[in-house]
Design goal:
The chain has one helix spanning 18-41, and strands spanning 43-48, 54-61, 66-74, 78-84, 91-98, 104-105, 109-113, 118-121, 132-140, 147-151. It has 162 residues and is mainly β. The strands form two sheets. Strands 2, 3, 5, 6, 7, 8 and 9 form a seven-stranded antiparallel β-sheet that branches. A three-stranded mixed β-sheet has the order 4-1-10, covered by helices on one side.
């Protein structure tokens, strides 16, 4: 151990000149952003490309069962991560409602939902279990580690939508 005021040999901050500090800072900054950007791309994201606020629910198969979760509320022209990290399933299912225009994005894959925030295990007997039976549309990620879904204006009532 060194006593206060004692001089010793070795590396000190005073010996590192300003240009070397700048280079080291640049290298660490570049390394940090490259690691951060890789993590930011490994997830399932949903972007609301409409002028309305949208509510989103997701369905997926975990290790043992089907799970549905909701609601993510997305402002117009914004994005949200629904599944963080690398995707482990090939198929995900989305249901979304347009709160302002009353449209929806749905499909033929029926799963359980409810009006308030939820995580529901299982997709059978939704109504008997006190949930709503809702049609989700399928996303085939092709086994990619990340995927982004973009919602555009939904099909309105009377033009083939429901």
């Amino acid at each position: 151990m060194y006593e206060v005021g004692e001089r010793h040999q070795g590396w000190s901050r005073a010996r590192v000149n300003a240009p070397l500090r700048a280079v080291l800072l640049a290298v660490f900054t570049l390394l940090f952003f490259s690691i951060s950007s890789d993590d930011a791309h490994a997830d399932l994201r949903l972007c609301n490309k409409t002028d309305s606020q949208v509510g989103v629910a997701i369905g997926y198969k975990d290790k043992s069962d089907w799970v549905t979760e909701g609601w993510w509320n997305l402002a117009s022209n914004s994005c949200e991560t629904l599944v963080p990290g690398s995707l482990v399933s090939r198929y995900y299912y989305i249901y979304a409602v347009d709160y302002d225009q009353f449209g929806e994005w749905g499909g033929r894959a029926f799963m359980c939902t409810r009006e308030k925030e939820f995580t529901i295990r299982g997709i059978e007997d939704c109504v008997a279990r006190g949930f709503e039976r809702t049609g989700f549309f399928e996303i085939d990620t092709g086994e990619q580690s990340s995927w982004t879904v973009q919602l555009t204006e939904p099909v309105q009532q009377g033009t083939g939508g429901r």
